[in-house]
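Limitations

Structures in this collection are predictions, not experimental determinations, and the ligand pose is part of the prediction. Treat each record accordingly. The example that follows, with calcium ion as the small molecule, is included so readers can see exactly what is and is not provided: the inputs are given verbatim, and the output is the predicted complex.
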Amino acid sequence: MKAVKVLLVEDDPSIAAVVQRGLGDAGFEVLHVETGAAALAATGYDFVLLDLGLPDTDGLDVCRDIRAKSHVPVIIVTARSDELDRVVGLELGADDYVVKPFGMRELIARIRAVLRRGGGPDPAQASTDITVGDLVINEKMREATLAGETLTLTPKEFDLLAYLAAEPEVVHRRHDILERVWDTEWYGPTKTLDAHVAALRKKLGNQDWIEAVRGVGFRLRAPQA
Ligand code: CA
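Predicted complex:
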């Protein structure tokens, strides 16, 4: 499967180096440019990470110009957290935004979430099966199989399973799960999450697939044979 190629538009060399390394470690290919002009001249990428504060032009103009010619997913990276920029950025067609400083895990989770939503011109290129033990998740088809048997999941159960399986062994905080799988603005009771975990465990046929880490959250891993 072809790696997803990310166009990283970032003029700060220290940030660019960290992001480039982090994305590389996560299996992405990175094409780094430092100006809006270079971003608009670039070709052959599947995804754009766009800094708003660029030396030659406003990142929002770059976003609009990219969106005018393609449906490639764009995540805006900004140090400006005021509401106006967020709204304007999203109206210009950005798929999501992250505010500096951000963690690589958060950034990669957001990139995967945007790719999962299929914002790109060819989601098949961005979509790869996730395999954890006998569990295989095809995000493009929104299908999960366990030892070859298709699991019948609700949309939220699928999203939760795919989110946890994208980083097996990693403990995900309840808050992060709720933010990513449900709604970024939803901070309601977490009973819904517990109910979905219980349903998934039942469908996976083994409680050990999803471990509750007390006071923190959940992690997914293949049960020991
Ligand atoms: Ca900048």
